[in-house]
Design a protein that fits this description.
Layout lengths: L5 H10 L22 H4 L2 E4 L2 H10 L2 E3 L5 E2 L5 E5 L6 E10 L3 E6 L4 E7 L9 E2 L5 E2 H4 L4 E2 L4 E3 L9 E2 L5 E10 L14 E4 L6 E4 L5 H10 L4 H11 L23 H8 L13 H13 L33 H7 L1
Parallel strand pairs: 2-15, 11-12
Antiparallel strand pairs: 1-4, 3-11, 4-10, 5-8, 5-9, 5-13, 6-7, 13-14, 13-15
Length: 334
Amino acid sequence: MSTGPGFLTTAAMINGSEWSPACLPCSADEGRTCSKAPEVASVRVQLEMQSLWRQFDQLGTEMIVTKAGRRMFPTFQVLISGMDPAAEYVLLLDFIPVDDKRYRYAFHSSSWMVAGRGDIAAPGRVHFHPDSPARGAQWVKQTVSFDRLKLTNNLLDDNGHMILNSMHRYQPRLHVILVDRSRDSQRYAHRNFCTFIFPETRFIAVTAYQNHRITQLKIACNPFAKGFRAADSENRHSAQCQTESAGLSLPWSVFEGSSPREDQRLHHQPQPQRRSNAHDPALQTAMTEAALSYGAGTDRRDGGSQDHFYSAPVLLTVPCQWDGPSRADRSLIG
């Protein structure tokens, strides 16, 4: 990406700068005479899904970090205006600690509390929007989404993910950088970028959600969590798992002490026709015999008039409603 000699200087200034409410300040030696380049001074940025971000912020937003990297939800998305249509811009996103504290969640009060001094800051990184660089006309025509960004707590990450410390609070920052291809662009690097911060996007990095209301809100609002919403609704109307053994009518009473004749009579009852060859009568007979074989022991103390079957442990594959997402699916929740 050829962006001119001053671009690296600009990126270095961004990476080492402190949190500021708007555009980052110019160097101290230039004082009040410093001003941003007109191509960036007129840029305006609006946060998308602002009301949703505020809902999370009121509860204390949590973002999952994993070794492999986890996407953010809500996704950081913005609408940009005021760019020079012919000028080229680069968009960057980074995360800075809000403070030097480490936090813990107090379940008795449902709130976050300071747990001590923060850990050593993770290596500073910036995330380039994949469309960078692009002309202003392209940036302003549609929503700009950082949906490919992932958060990790792996200090040795080599995938370019944003490295954060768990149980620390962070603030995302958006940087708009003007691509200046002039020879003396290094002299004006401080004028060629502007930073935008939205306080409602701050969050605490966690390896597992602490506040159950955050979990519920993410499942309710994340479009990729539709399956989890359906499962949660079904679980509220079901007190136990549905024991559908793939249409196979095993004689469950055999484990409760019934006689072989009763089991045989149950087995020979008419069965509905199955589409799958895996549930044909021969297979049902084999499965029934396998179940009966666990009750081979008899007790003849009553004169042999009745067989008492031992309740040996049997492992059966029974589909069951589970109210938690798999490891693969959890990546879709955010």
